[in-house]
Amino acid sequence: xxxxxxxxxxxxxxxxxxxxxxxxxxxxxxxxxxxxxxxxxxxxxxxxxxxxxxxxxxxxxxxxxxxxxxxxxxxxxxxxxxxxxxxxxxxxxxxxxxxxxxxxxxxxxxxxxxxxxxxxxxxxxxxxxxxxxxxxxxxxxxxxxxxxxxxxxxxxxxxxxxxxxxxxxxxxxxxxxxxxxxxxxxxxxxxxxxxxxxxxxxxxxxxxxxxxxxxxxxxxxxxxxxxxxxxxxxxxxxxxxxxxxxxxxxxxxxxxxxxxxxxxxxxxxxxxxxxxxxxxxxxxxxxxxxxxxxxxxxxxxxxxxxxxxxxxxxxxxxxxxxxxxxxxxxxxxxxxxxxxxxxxxxxxxxxxxxxxxxxxxxxxxxxxxxxxxxxxxxxxxxx
Length: 383
Description:
Belongs to the dGTPase family. Type 2 subfamily. GO terms for molecular function: dGTPase activity. This protein is mainly alpha-helical. The chain has 19 helices and no strands. Helices cover 61% and strands 0% of the residues.
């Protein structure tokens, strides 16, 4: 065990690879605590409260937003980190930052912006999250962005094509995109956050799907993963049959979340025992270490397939998604045609089309709807 009390393969909070612009030590905070604090105080983080996952903001007050989702991922990630003796503050920073680049209206907004930007470098929300913390936040006198540590920036960049990695490495040879050219892995902390993200959205999409009425508990009963924990819940608490059905749903999901977290911890420990990395750098040279067991992987995949078919492709969601796509496409066209409708720092940017994408990507659902109505005179989501 190293002096920090962390596992040897954890990212040492006192030995960061540094920031693009050196600011000196942050003591008594570690560099990753400092990153976490900057993310929480950022404008982009506050906007997540009005960016939704599956349901558009006007559809109800109780559905998850990007903010509540990020908090759930952070809670799961820290619980896992504590058991594996990993860097909790780094995991928390990654969890809170991982959705900062998401557009309004979830993946529908991203897909449309990517189409609009086809001749101008494309658009991908994961790259946008890094762009937010590297450039778009305007809070400090000495630099644009949040000037986060290498480890946090690396973990934010979860996906990257080889083409984009080459472009990024040309500007920053040893930056967070290098691993996509070298074929190495991110930190174990980043790997854990990726899977905690998956656990969180699968569970809360089930909850929100039932709450919305788009999927039913009877449908869920046919899924092996859900049925297993429903049966456990009923065996432990037979009185649930006489209670409102949501009590049974909550207890089932609570048990499912716990089991997935413990499975992830156990399987990751098995992989660590198998490969025995000496330190965090050695771990990067190995195959992915964070993983679910074979016993969980297929039932979890079945749940994901169910959600894709029955929730994400439900006719009501598809209809709302189509309208959201129209909003984003027409906003992009309107701003390209009339740049003066945007704030001056976007309208006057040298990379104009990228600035339009930045402006739209930063919008909340409800601001995008208001802007669309202002510019077009149409309300596509009128109740």
